[in-house]
Amino acid sequence: MPSDTLWEIAKAEVEKREISENGGDGAEVCEKSVFFIGSKNGGKTTIILRCLDRDEPPKPTLALEYTYGRRAKGHNTPKDIAHFWELGGGTSLLDLISIPITNESLRTFSLVLVLDLSKPNDLWPTMESLLQVTKAHVDKLIMKLGKTSTKAASEMRQKMWSNMQKDHPDRELIDPFPIPLVIIGSKYDIFQDFDSEKRKIICKTLRFVSHYYGASLMFASKSEALLLKIRGVINQLAFGIDKSKSISVDQNKPLFIPAGLDSLSQIGSPPLSENEIGKLHAQTPMELWKKVYEKVFPPKSANTSKETRDPARDPQYAESEVDEMRAQKDQELEQYKKNTSKSWKQIEFDT
């Protein structure tokens, strides 16, 4: 019996087609992976479809989804392959983060965090949960890699600093994310109508977090110009296309800041008075920015922000016939449990 997994079979089929399309010359095909995580209904699927030039309406992402794209380096050259993963459900399916990020894909893996700017109260909890879980998993893999190949692990650690110039004044003050990271603030068309002070706090906070992690930061909307910029950045992660050298730090315009081009001096201190900051008792700069941000945009309580962990109960996946049958079976199960409980009580009484 064949022991190959469905993934291994699909990968082998793609490689077979690539060799066939390129005249069987066996030229090397470069493969990279890009993992999209972020706010629920934040626009991750829309960005992926735009990057792949697919003109189709986005559908709700159920759990973890996969697609791929191909791009030729030049005439009569093999097409590079980009694997696109997307995690649905916001922060409700954190356990699935470890599935696409493996020892085999780690060194060619990039992360795209999409945050919904129109929901600022959910922004920090979503960002913090997803980045913490992803970082912990990647750090674990790098440590494991170091036990079998110290050279490979060392190269990964050096790569973390590749976007930061050696003479950058903030080198000793930041902690780069272990894999390339891009943070996208979506729904800028709604965000731009926010009060200017609120926009200022959100922009400065995201600039600090992005700079601290050595990440790129950019805002997106339905604007074709912004989507083209985002597409260029994603293509750079997926196919190694040249990076954009443009930059925009004006909070009254969509932010576009490639990794390593910002600085703490330009970002400035958190937008609170020194007296107020002193009362927050933060242990680290990241904790200070968190406290300042949540002072203005307090996270929703656990009850109101709790997302549906069971996709079968999520209203966006409703199917009347299936749901009616499910409800009937749930009732039958509850009745069975009650009858079983009564039976056991009767046995104990008779004894």
Automatic annotation (TrEMBL):
<protein>
    <recommendedName>
        <fullName>Cytoplasmic dynein 2 light intermediate chain 1</fullName>
    </recommendedName>
</protein>
<dbReference type="InterPro" id="IPR027417">
    <property type="entry name" value="P-loop_NTPase"/>
</dbReference>
<keyword id="KW-0970">Cilium biogenesis/degradation</keyword>
<keyword id="KW-0217">Developmental protein</keyword>
<dbReference type="GO" id="GO:0005868">
    <property type="term" value="C:cytoplasmic dynein complex"/>
</dbReference>
<dbReference type="GO" id="GO:0005930">
    <property type="term" value="C:axoneme"/>
</dbReference>
<comment type="similarity">
    <text>Belongs to the dynein light intermediate chain family.</text>
</comment>
<dbReference type="GO" id="GO:0045504">
    <property type="term" value="F:dynein heavy chain binding"/>
</dbReference>
<dbReference type="GO" id="GO:0036064">
    <property type="term" value="C:ciliary basal body"/>
</dbReference>
<keyword id="KW-0963">Cytoplasm</keyword>
<dbReference type="Pfam" id="PF05783">
    <property type="entry name" value="DLIC"/>
</dbReference>
<keyword id="KW-0966">Cell projection</keyword>
<dbReference type="InterPro" id="IPR040045">
    <property type="entry name" value="DYNC2LI1"/>
</dbReference>
<dbReference type="GO" id="GO:0005813">
    <property type="term" value="C:centrosome"/>
</dbReference>
<feature type="compositionally biased region" description="Basic and acidic residues">
    <location>
        <begin position="323"/>
        <end position="337"/>
    </location>
</feature>
<dbReference type="GO" id="GO:0005874">
    <property type="term" value="C:microtubule"/>
</dbReference>
<dbReference type="GO" id="GO:0035721">
    <property type="term" value="P:intraciliary retrograde transport"/>
</dbReference>
<dbReference type="InterPro" id="IPR022780">
    <property type="entry name" value="Dynein_light_int_chain"/>
</dbReference>
<keyword id="KW-0243">Dynein</keyword>
<feature type="region of interest" description="Disordered">
    <location>
        <begin position="300"/>
        <end position="351"/>
    </location>
</feature>
<dbReference type="GO" id="GO:0035735">
    <property type="term" value="P:intraciliary transport involved in cilium assembly"/>
</dbReference>
<keyword id="KW-0493">Microtubule</keyword>
<keyword id="KW-0206">Cytoskeleton</keyword>
<keyword id="KW-0969">Cilium</keyword>
<keyword id="KW-0505">Motor protein</keyword>
